[in-house]
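TL;DR need structure tokens for one chain.
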Amino acid sequence: MTTWLITGCSTGLGRALAEAVLEHGDNAVVTARDVSTVQDIADAHPDSALAVALDVTDDGQVAAAVAAAEERFGAVDVLVNNAGYGYRAAVEEGEDTAVQRLFDTHLYGSVRTIKAVLPGMRARGSGTIVNLSSIGARISPEGSGYYAAVKAAIESLTLSLRKEVAPLGITAMVVEPGGFRTDFAGRSLTQSAEPIADYADTAGKRRKENDTAHGTQKGDPAKAAAALIRVVESDDAPYMLLLGNDASDGFRAALDALRTEVDAWESVSRSTDFDD
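>> reply
TL;DR here they are.
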């Protein structure tokens, strides 16, 4: 039976995935900073679920969560790095401490859990690591520069990791969701404390007090969870899985725009080598 360790299961995609994994018949280690917020999931599946307190910025809690998973179920077969939250600010507005916390949670939190599960996966010659990114990494909307940056870092890290662990029987992949009807753009969204008036028509339009998208997103978390399980169980999981029509459309538009720019400046790009 496959055992999943999923970070950030209190709400949203993490919770939907934890519930779907358990209904699918697999084991799940469901985690959250406040373990009481996921205890109901474990109580509903006493034989196959384990609720564990996990703050991914805490080295000790990361080690303890993986140890608890291995003690209860023998191994971690699938790691899903889902824990995180949104942060909106114009680049100039971003507070140093807030940005550092964002990177510590999303990027370094993922690195901590990856390093904690890899020894076991290498020993068994199998395993899957799933890192949650965002279509924001591709389209980089105004006001989401720091969030897009941390997700882009996760994507680059994952691609290198994928090449390193593939010969060892391990898969690493990224998931780029679009907008899903979760708390991500509501309660979980943070932003800079002091907006700068000059950015009112760009980053300012996406501040919480001005953004009306929350609660109207097209993405269904239950369908996203089912899709992810299907892909993880496949024999050819991709490096990147897009989830949602808006993610697919945004990705293709960004790719086309970038290709157009690369083509337009190709002669300059190719003019910088030594003349042999």
